[in-house]
Design brief:
Blueprint (H helix, E strand, L loop, with lengths): L1 H22 L3 H13 L7 E5 L1 H4 L4 H4 L5 E5 L5 H6 L1 H4 L7 E5 L2 H6 L5 H18 L5 E3 L12 H16 L4 E3 L1
Parallel strand pairs: 1-2, 1-3, 3-4, 4-5
Length: 177
């Protein structure tokens, strides 16, 4: 009986450690955002860029949109589940006038078992989370792009982009780029 109990405790410990490590892979970046926000909170009614490294590494994004207030909260290497997990820290606090999302490529790159349907379902989950809190603001999804190192994933990108665009056609206040 004691053996069974200690085995269950050990299993629960390993699962919780694994879960903690996976769920907090980007905690340092989130903490850096929080620190910046504590020093000077970005103004509300800005345009929020969120998603993976294509946004995170776009350090001169403000130069491309003169006259607009931009908040760049891209998280390098993130997936849609990461955006969902960090929603309350990386999207919700900013009260933006518009949200642009670039994410999905890393979902496919993370595992060969991730399907188009999985990525589309993840996007829909994030979309409805945003819509729950921000019913009227415009939301834009930037399509997954070709990448030389991930050329083998391009067929999945095309199918997922098509499915997300089709989903968004039936929604209000959206853009698909």
């Amino acid at each position: 009986m004691m053996y069974k109990y200690s085995t269950l405790l050990l299993l629960a410990f390993f699962l919780s450690v694994k879960s903690f490590c996976q769920q907090h892979a980007f905690q340092d970046e989130i903490d850096a955002f929080k620190k910046l926000d504590a020093e000077k909170m970005p103004p509300s009614k800005a345009i929020l860029f969120t998603g993976s490294s294509s946004f995170r590494l776009w350090t001169d994004v403000k130069d491309y949109f003169p006259g607009y207030t931009i908040i760049n909260r891209g998280i390098g290497g993130s997936t849609l589940p990461d955006l969902i997990y960090f929603y309350k820290d990386a999207i919700l606090p900013y009260r933006p006038r518009q949200i642009l999302i670039y994410c999905g490529e890393n979902d496919f790159a993370a595992s060969d078992t991730v399907t188009v349907e999985t990525v589309v379902t993840r996007f829909k989950q994030l979309y409805f989370m945003i819509r729950k809190d921000y019913k009227k603001i415009p939301l834009a999804y930037v399509a997954m792009k070709p990448s030389p190192s991930r050329q083998h994933l391009m067929p999945k990108y095309v199918l997922a982009n098509t499915a997300i665009a089709k989903f968004l056609k039936n929604q209000k206040k959206h853009r698909f780029y």
